[in-house]
Amino acid sequence: MENNSIKPVFGEISFSNGKIAEIKELKFSSFDFKSRREKDAIDAGGRVVTIPSINFHDHFYSRLAKGLMLKGPMDNFHNILKTLWWKFDLLLDDEMTRASAQMAAMESIRNGVTYIFDHQSSPGAAEGSLEVISETLNECGLRGVLGFEITDRNGESNAVGGLKETERFLKDHSNDENIKSIIGLHASFTLFDSSLENAKIFLDKYETGIHIHLCEDKIDSQITREKYNKLPTERLAGSGLLNDKSILAHGIHLSKKEFEIIAERGSALVFNPDSNMNNAVGLPAFVDIPYEIPMLCGTDGMNSNPDKSLKQVFLLCRHSGMSFEKTFELIGKIYFNQARFVKKYFPDFPSIHPGDRADFIIRDYIPPTPLLKENFWGHFIYGIVERPVHSVIQDGKSLMNNFRLTKDFEEYNRNIKEQGHRLYNKLRDNY
């Protein structure tokens, strides 16, 4: 994986004590599936095994936002924020946050996502909110990089609450094996200089990065230039907040100069095409992005399937006229960028080699033609990511086996429904 190459093999994976012990290569043509089935084994039946999927930009807090009755203009991105999200997140409390995290965790496991970079926003109940999310991830055996969305849009007291929650979580989880912390920021156009200065203090003290929306819509650049006479990326760079552990979500309306700044500092761009199309904010010009910029995929809370985002990137590139060769090359770049970037937070992220953590997923895809190094991306895009996940192994433990979640989520489902109804009624009463 370090050499940006994949060598598919047919065989058996043995693991114990959370580590891959052995990968035994076998001949598919002479393999007897029935005779090799054992009680303590997962029968993959010739299916494809890959590393876990990673969601580099999720919003757990948005999970209960289904079927809401909204009143107000939704004709542009700024109005969508003001009519929906900036009213919605102010109503969240700890129990709603917990239910949202529970729903996201179940969805993530079903999609083979076991590493998640979450961007929390509950400005009316900031204190302890990241701990609520981390508790749910731990219950479900998932790993996460959590940050609270600091913003000045709701006044000083809420901004201070976000800063305090960020600092507390950074301090408490500096040595946590499975839950890491990052500095969450909403977007340049809702942040005062004072908040960026505080974020810089945290960044230096805890040696981490930022997780921020960058130029998702043109208003980020317009309002930032009006207030600060700078482009958003220039402002972040000038504040010393761009480094190689930083996540810049969206990056749709970036200038050539801003791309150069990002490339120089090594920060990563995270694509969320489903959300971009839903909000009608435009799409990244993939062909214009410098190759040296790390490119990742997220979902922006729209769903829990970053593989779907990767497939959308492929189709959008093809739709724009990019050749198959260049598009497959880009998909391979993103895939390996993801595996490398996540190691900045989890150095033991596996590559499915003996001695690695036993984190992997079994896809419900049996290749109909030979699976080779030379044709892997064709299988991946047109076959592997189109099929559901069969089983999920994390740290040597089964989170899902043969499409069945191994944890009993009945209590989660009851709580999700209860808190979803609470939020629905609360939002309705506040319009």
Descriptive account of the structure:
The protein has two domains: 11-50 and 357-401, Urease, subunit C, domain 1; 53-342, TIM Barrel, CATH 3.20.20.140. The protein is globular, with a radius of gyration of 22 Å. 39% of the residues lie in helices and 18% in strands. The longest helix is centred in the last third of the chain and has 20 residues, at 410-429. Helix 2 packs across helix 13. It has helices at residues 77-88, 94-110, 129-140, 156-172, 193-206, 218-228, 232-238, 256-265, 273-279, 306-319, 324-342, 376-382, 410-429; strands spanning 11-16, 19-25, 48-50, 53-58, 113-120, 143-148, 179-181, 183-187, 210-214, 247-250, 268-271, 295-297, 360-363, 389-394, 397-401, 404-405. It has a five-stranded antiparallel β-sheet, with helices on one face. It is an alpha/beta fold and 431 residues long.
In short:
By secondary structure, the chain is an alpha/beta fold.
- Supply the CATH architecture of the largest domain: Alpha-Beta Barrel
Strand-and-helix sequence, N→C?
A: EEEEHHEHEHEEHEHHEHEHEHHEHEEEH
Unreliable residue runs: none
Radius of gyration: 22 Å
What's the N-to-C terminus distance? Answer: 51 Å
How many strands in all? Answer: 16
Cα shape: globular
The CATH class of the largest domain is identified as: Alpha Beta
Mean pLDDT: 94
Query: In what range is the share of β-strand residues?
Result: 15-25%
Helical amount among residues, as a percent range?
25-40%
Q: Give the CATH H-level superfamily of the largest domain.
A: Metal-dependent hydrolases
Going across the biggest sheet, name each strand in turn. Answer: 3-13-14-15-16
Instruction: Please give the domain count.
Output: 2
CATH fold annotation of the largest domain: TIM Barrel
Q: For the report, how would you describe the main beta sheet?
A: 5 strands, antiparallel
Q: Tell me the structural class.
A: alpha/beta
| Number of DSSP helical runs | 13
